[in-house]
Amino acid sequence: MPIKLNRAGWPRLLSALPLMSDDPRSLALGRSGATRESFSQSVSVLKFGTTFKTTLPGRQPDSNRFLAARYAGKAPVVLDIGASDGSTSLDLLGALAGQFGHYFVTDFNISVRWGVDMRGRYYFTDASGACILSASPRWLIYADVGDAPLALRLLAKRLLSGSRDVSSWEEILLVHPELVALAHADPRITIARHDVFSPWAGMRPDLIKIANLLNRCYFSEAKIANALRVQCSALAIGGRLILVENRAEREQFSAFIRTTTSMQLEHSHDRGSDVAVLVPTSF
Ligand SMILES: C[S@@+](CC[C@H](N)C(=O)[O-])C[C@H]1O[C@@H](n2cnc3c(N)ncnc32)[C@H](O)[C@@H]1O
Description:
Shape: globular
CATH class of the largest domain: Alpha Beta
Number of domains: 2
Number of strands: 16
Bound molecules: S-adenosylmethionine
Number of helices: 7
Oligomer: single chain
């Protein structure tokens, strides 16, 4: 649904309603960073195109344990794609306990611009300047209208058009301040913008992690297969791809090793990744 309720403006009694959402205005007001959880909750409300920035610290303990065991005593170059605010990157960095050569925390939507109109309604835009969301104390309006009824689509469009009245915009980095501080202190950590559909042009990775991004609800199978081919091509020979998904309380993942000619399945956890079948079998 393109229209949701902003939890901030409704009585607590209603907070369990399905369309109730956290308040993204706290990102703009700098009130979201009290804990890693609260920052992630505010970032998770944002939706760029068809993709929510949903994330939460502590959601991938099984794949973190698996990777920590595989890289004990080694120094892999890690490329984490679609990392959102980097909460899960902080978790993996913690599990690796310093045993990495370089860690690239990447996302296509690494920042957001925000502004306020005369009536106090907040607007958020993506890197191209397109309005993705507006927020008032009671309502959130999303630009991605999906297949909502026509009346709702038209209403959402009209309400978002108010972004034209905003005269000044500010940009905020959607990465948790703890990770930003860590990247300043440790030159082996880089935060960068990267598109999963484009080739990686940096240091050759030994490990590529893609979690909760290549989802059939977000992208067609053809697009997912293309993204996997493009990213696997960047892997070092002997390098590893790990695809992770969080379904309800469960964590599923599949790990693959790159050989000279193919990607070989190494391990499946709890039925494996939903998109494991789309990993290229040959190059
Ligand atoms: C559901 S979140 C997953 C966050 C984190 N990996 C996790 O598992 O908690 C998906 C992330 O993918 C990012 N994303 C969407 N399209 C992308 C693209 N084309 N390339 C890279 N990242 C993208 C979104 O901005 C969002 O932060």
